[in-house]
Design brief:
The structure holds 3 protein chains of 3 kinds. By secondary structure, chain A is mostly helical. Helix content of chain A is 66%, strand content 0%. Chain C is mainly α. Chain C is built from 17 helices and 6 strands. Classes of the chains: A mainly alpha, B mainly alpha, C mainly alpha.
Chain lengths: 119, 507, 467
């Protein structure tokens, strides 16, 4: 049996449970109409229409996502390197130090240019 | 024991040198961000990175040894002996393309040195050098993965460079370029994946072997052919070949001028390098199929580019459309390939044309940059603003005129003439007459607008022009102007360099 | 060169589909019951920390309280506000609720054991992969989709911002987490969970006063910095106090699930607690020796056989869970900028640096050509070169530029009542006056002039109103 089959089994159980729960709530819950209840909740004031369909948000999150991708790719290289470290020998160590140093330079640049500040 | 690849750093020097420059520029800026005093240090480091890359290319060319690195060993495969394959190979083709990219980038960097504000200098230099490293890697790439990654490294930094103008127009140009780059990456990846699926190989020489086998099923050929078409389309975006050219005029007009020059010279080199590496090295067996596709693509590109350029009044937009047409010319010889045997001549003609094009374009762009700096309309200046330039600035006008003559292929621009002849010759030799005739018509079209521009230079200044501004040419700009002019003259005196660029380019 | 296990140590080849189904069901029930107990424990423990009794009505010690809450949630109205994207609004909690369980499929609960009343022997682990830890990271990443989509589809401002914050938080801390794992992989030579537990079976030995001492084998001790980084990152990753900014009720009401009610909310809630179990179980497996018995118990031979190890595993997980509660009862919430600064400016560089240190140490142990001396010399050379570069560049920056004092902006005088209702001053602004809106028509103070005293003189009624 493929080692992935058990994962699919667990996935099936969890998915069935989630569906069942959502379905139960839809069936068992009461239905009472209320205008205010159907509005978006904003602590009682008139909801801002801005948020509908995605809305606008600080571009800073985009920068975080970009930085995450850079470091995630670093992880993509580091994880297999770590597993194969003993058999790769000094070559891998030297290459990885070079790689990490390069990423670190870019990281220092981003930091000093204010890319990590959150106002 | 996991196999550890060996790395030949000397062979990789043209790729590594610009990247070292990138790291050093970043280190300096990380220690002292936005220090105005260090602007010269940034410039010096960036220039040093490019000069080092140029020196490495020269050394490798003089040394002449066949080098290759990051190889997988051969062995006895199912179909007999398998030769070792390498991901990066130093050949005449590699070195020629790298030389064009490095020299072109050096010119653009020197033109831009006083352009971006001090705060933007680091990003500018870093992006520019990264792109050059990408082109250098692309020229030597000999497997599909390296090819794709190098091409993206060469083209994505251009998005940042274009957007550095930091205004609405620059942002629009940047977004246009980004969307184009992403879309073309998708096409290219799909094409490359199909080629890989058809052959099961990643290295181009092995793909070539796999596709030249005697008993290939039709399905394999169909998948590989579809992959080839998609790949050509993906790279066509980078080369701005019609119908993938629509980003070109807006991006050129929205980018800072030196960056437009960079797009015209270095990005075009990247595009051609990708086409040549993929088609000529990986798929020569399918030359009969892609030859036709490329021929049609090139013919349409040349014609559309020239026709639209005829109607342009703004200098930058005319140059943008002219580069579209010239991209068609660069592709044209490849369209003459009808079988594997005719590929090397076609590639030699293409690369030869690229050499001539790069030198002439750099010369023309330098003068346009200079005029834009001294003209109230800036980058929006029109052709009419060149009226009588020969009387005010004879040297610059002479360089511009000579560059235009080279682009048009008119004497005294012998370089351009020879390049065009060389480009058409494979078409004639292989009997692709329709395309050859279209090419001949386009020579005339091109001459029309280049000549009109050139004629303005020597025309009498019109009434209503204000007092002429005396140009103050900065040393860096003077260097580029002189260098580009010297290259144009040298290639015109010794056209055999362009003509026979390296017959053994595909050794 | 020692040959380390690169692939799962546990052997699953004899598992039939029934055994797999049973184990999967067990994991599911374990997590759901664990969640119920955890909610109860959290409320009771936090209550004790605050000198309250906590829920004590339903069942012994109030044990049935979470069940009652669950039943109540199911019977509540399932509100779907008008502005939501209907499909995504339903899909988001299902994604969260489903993905949360996945990571547990590769967590080892124990070694091979016999299923009671049968002759079947099977590892107490659903399955294992050569890339088990990558699978866990991937499953955790899928959970983020639930949060982002839930916030986005609600069509409301608070959930949108909460979802963004939450995802930014999770991905920021995921980097530090992954980097902390690298050193574990370096030492165990595998990403398979069973192999990592196996690698912590025995440490080295040391000779002290003629006695042979077993050195500690847990990665929590040998790789302490990694353990600390992982523990911080796992709290950030699960959005728990003191890092529970996505649902900072003072700013964002409930965060990404503000618009959710009834069972959809229940699923988000469940996912949050299951995620806590997941990260605790990973911490146990990677750093605390997994199901292996702790030191004094490990002297007993039977401790690592049969069903006992599952007890050790659950106890270790329980300790982590208690720490989650403890943190919540103790620490105030961080500000968002402090939180991001902690992740990006402290954890990531620390994790990177420590990874390099571990790699260097490992090299001295594994490769004959590398001696400790050489590594030390190399490190010293790198640091010296860095210092020289930094000092040189610093010297290049002109003295004027360096010593130039920050031009302190002249504080700008603002009228807090100019807009009709009071507005607090921005940083760098100075209040021009402090009295109420009555003044607006009467007097507009000149900028830069301190008028507070005059106003208090001329407006005695203001004092009276304030008092």
């Amino acid at each position: 049996m493929s080692p992935y089959v058990p994962i699919l089994v667990l996935l099936g159980i969890a998915f069935a449970f989630s569906l069942l729960t959502v379905g139960l709530g839809m069936i068992l819950g009461p239905r009472r109409y209320g205008t205010a209840k159907m509005e978006a909740y904003e602590s009682g004031i008139q909801p801002t229409p801005r948020a509908v369909g995605g809305g606008r948000f600080p571009v800073k999150y985009y920068l975080v996502a970009m930085l995450f991708i850079i470091f995630d790719i670093e992880g993509v290289f580091l994880l297999p390197f770590a597993v194969a470290f003993d058999s790769l020998g000094m070559f891998a160590l030297a290459e990885m130090v070079l790689f990490v140093a390069t990423v670190f330079v870019a990281y220092a640049y981003v930091w000093r240019r204010g890319g990590l500040e959150w106002e | 024991m996991t196999r550890v690849p060996s790395v030949d750093w000397v062979a990789l020097a043209p790729v590594v040198a610009p990247l070292l420059g990138v790291v050093l520029v970043l280190v300096v800026d990380a220690v002292a961000p936005r220090a105005a005093r260090l602007a010269r240090v940034h410039d010096a480091l960036a220039v040093a990175g490019l000069v080092a890359a140029g020196a490495a290319v020269t050394w490798l060319a003089v040394d002449g040894a066949a080098r290759s690195t990051v190889c997988v060993p051969g062995g006895d495969g199912e179909a007999g002996l398998v030769l070792p394959s390498c991901s990066y190979v130093v050949s005449d083709l590699t070195l020629t393309l790298q030389a064009i990219a490095v020299v072109g980038a050096l010119g653009c960097l020197l033109l831009a040195v006083d352009g971006p504000a001090a705060a933007d200098r680091t990003p500018h230099h870093v992006l520019l050098l990264s792109a050059v490293a990408g082109v250098a890697a692309l020229a030597g790439a000999r497997d599909l993965a390296t090819l794709v990654i190098a091409l993206e490294t060469a083209s994505l930094p251009a998005v940042g460079l274009v957007a550095l103008r930091r205004d609405a127009q620059g942002a629009q140009a940047g977004i246009t370029l980004l969307l184009t780059a992403v879309a073309s990456l998708g096409l290219l990846l799909l094409g490359v994946a199909l080629i890989h699926a058809a052959t099961g190989e990643l290295h181009l020489d092995r793909i070539a072997t796999a596709l030249s086998g005697p008993d290939l099923s039709g399905a394999v050929l169909a998948v590989a052919g579809l992959g080839t078409v998609l790949g050509v389309a993906g790279i066509g975006f980078k080369l701005s070949a019609v119908p993938f050219h629509l980003w070109t005029p807006d991006t050129y007009a929205g980018a800072p001028l030196p960056i437009a020059a960079f797009l015209a010279v270095v990005s075009k080199t990247a595009g051609l390098a990708a086409v040549v590496v993929l088609l000529a090295l990986g798929l020569p067996a399918l030359a009969g199929s892609w030859g036709l596709v490329v021929a049609v693509l090139a013919a349409v590109t040349v014609t559309v580019g020239n026709l639209v350029a005829l109607r342009q009044r703004v200098a930058v937009r005319l140059l943008a459309w002219s580069t579209v047409a010239q991209a068609g010319w660069v592709l044209l010889p490849l369209g003459a390939a009808v079988d594997a045997a005719s590929v090397p001549t076609a590639v030699a003609a293409s690369v030869g044309y690229l050499v001539a094009y790069a030198a002439a374009t750099l010369a023309v762009f330098t003068v346009v940059v200079l005029l834009a700096r001294h003209h109230p309309a800036g980058e929006e200046h029109t052709l009419a603003d060149y009226r009588g330039l020969a009387r005010r600035e004879p040297v610059a006008a002479a360089v511009l005129g000579f560059g235009l003559a080279c682009l048009a292929g008119l004497p005294p621009g012998v370089m351009g003439l020879v390049a065009k002849l060389v480009a058409v010759r494979p078409l004639v030799d292989n009997g692709v007459w329709v395309i050859a005739v279209i090419a001949a018509v386009n020579v005339v079209l091109g001459v029309l607008y280049y000549l009109r521009w050139g004629a303005l230079l020597v025309a009498a200044p019109g009434a209503g022009d204000g007092a002429p501004v005396t140009w103050r040419v900065r040393p860096a700009e003077g260097l580029v102007l002189g260098g580009a002019a010297a290259l144009c003259v040298a290639f015109s005196v010794l056209p055999q360099v362009v003509a026979g660029v390296l017959p053994g380019v595909l050794r | 060169m020692t040959m380390l296990a690169e692939n799962p140590v546990a052997d699953f080849s004899d598992d039939t589909i029934w055994v797999v189904l049973g184990k999967a069901l067990f994991i599911f029930v374990f997590l759901v019951v664990g969640t119920i107990l955890m909610i109860w424990a959290e409320r009771r423990v936090v209550a004790r920390m605050q000198s309250r009794p906590g829920p004590n009505r339903f069942g012994p010690f109030g044990l049935l309280q979470p069940l009652a809450d669950g039943v109540k949630l199911i019977l509540k109205e399932d509100i779907t506000p008008r502005a939501v994207d209907r499909v995504v609004f339903v899909v988001a909690p299902i994604i969260s609720g489903t993905a949360a369980f996945l990571a547990f499929s590769v967590i080892p609960f124990g070694p091979e054991a016999r299923i009671p009343f049968t002759d079947i022997r099977t590892p107490l682990q659903l399955t294992d992969l050569p890339i088990a830890l990558l699978f866990i990271l991937a499953a955790a990443a899928v959970g983020v989709y639930g949060i982002v989509l839930g916030g986005w589809s609600s069509g409301s401002t608070y959930p949108l911002l909460g979802g963004l914050r939450s995802s930014a938080q999770v991905i920021s801390y995921e980097i530090a987490m992954a980097l902390a794992l690298v050193s574990v992989f370096l030492y165990s030579g595998s990403m398979s969970t069973s192999a990592i537990v196996d690698a912590q079976a025995s440490g080295g030995t040391a000779q002290l006063f003629g006695m042979t001492l077993d050195l500690p084998s847990w990665h929590a001790i040998t790789l302490l910095p990694s353990f600390v980084i992982y523990c911080i990152a796992m709290v950030g990753e699960t959005n728990r106090a003191p890092f529970d900014l996505p649902e900072a009720e003072g700013e964002l009401v409930g965060g990404y699930h503000t618009e959710y009610s009834s069972t959809k909310f229940l699923l988000f809630f469940l996912a949050e607690y299951v995620n806590m179990f997941t990260v605790s179980a990973i911490a146990t497996t990677l750093f605390l020796g997994g199901w292996r018995a702790p030191f004094p118990l490990s002297l007993w031979d039977g401790a690592n056989h049969g069903w006992w190890p599952m007890l050790w595993f659950v106890l270790k997980v329980a300790i982590f869970m208690f720490c989650f509660i403890w943190l919540r009862g103790t620490l105030p919430r961080l500000r968002y900028d402090q939180f991001m600064a902690l992740g990006w400016k402290w954890l990531i560089p620390a994790a990177l640096g420590w990874t390099l240190v571990v790699a260097g140490l490992r090299a001295t142990q594994q490769f004959e050509s590398v001696s400790t001396q050489k590594v030390l010399i190399g490190v010293a050379a790198v640091i010296a070169a860095l210092l020289v570069v930094v000092l040189f560049i610093d010297w290049l920056v002109s003295p004027e530029e360096r010593r130039q004092p920050r031009q302190a902006a002249e504080p700008q005088a603002v009228d807090p009542f100019a807009g009709g209702y009071p507005v607090p001053p921005m940083p760098g602004q100075r209040l021009a006056r402090t009295s109420g809106p009555v003044l607006v028509a009467q007097q507009v103070p000149a900028a830069g002039q301190d008028t507070t005293d005059e106003e208090q003189d001329s407006q005695p009624g203001e004092e009276a109103r304030r008092g």
